[in-house]
Design brief:
The chain is mainly α. Helix 2 packs antiparallel against helix 6.
């Protein structure tokens, strides 16, 4: 890891402290290109009157959301997220006070928000220092390269190897992602 850190240099996180928006955007961005996601998000904002809020989305229906480019499932996910927020099932101020697993439990109760998305929320919205998203393909490839194990190694092995970096697995993840993107891991 020391060699990777030296190769990569300083990394930082762009924190997205807007809880609702972070999750709404994560749902929008799932499994589509960045260009498509940006186009859909821009139309979504316009549909919401210039600002995406849970209240604005709650006043829409599935067909309106589909008209801006959301699939049927993503439209339902957006409506479910807005519902959770507007009826008080999801309180972003409260999330900040909960343990990582409690945050994951609350967030994954929303349709369309899985464990990986909840972990990204922990990292990029709540700035938690010890998150390792073992389901992330990039992290798995990075750990395999760094530790010299098979790229198809079981998740349990990858997670066990990541224990070396606790209680700063988020920092390790940032370096692993950057190292993979820069090709620094292959050079080690």
């Amino acid at each position: 890891m020391r060699a990777l850190i030296e190769q990569v240099g300083e990394v930082s996180v762009d924190v997205d402290g807007e809880g609702y928006l972070a999750l709404a955007r994560a749902i929008c961005d799932q499994q589509i290109s960045g260009t498509a996601a940006t186009a859909i998000w821009n139309r979504f904002e316009a549909l919401c009157g210039g600002e995406v809020t849970a209240e604005a989305v709650s006043n829409l229906d599935e067909e309106a959301l589909r008209s801006v480019g959301f699939s049927r499932m993503k439209a339902r996910y957006q409506l479910d997220l807005a519902h959770h927020v507007t009826v008080g099932l999801l309180n972003f101020d409260e999330l900040a006070t909960l343990s990582d697993e409690e945050v994951i439990e609350r967030l994954t109760a929303v349709k369309g928000v899985g464990r990986w998305t909840a972990q990204m929320y922990l990292i990029f919205s709540l700035e938690r220092e010890d998150v390792f998203a073992v389901a992330d393909g990039g992290l798995r490839r990075s750990v395999a390269l760094l530790k010299g194990v098979d790229a198809d190694a079981p998740a349990a092995l990858i997670e066990a190897l990541a224990e070396d970096w606790a209680p700063y697995r988020t920092v390790a993840s940032l370096y692993l992602w950057r190292g993979l993107g820069q090709g620094a891991l292959q050079a080690l």
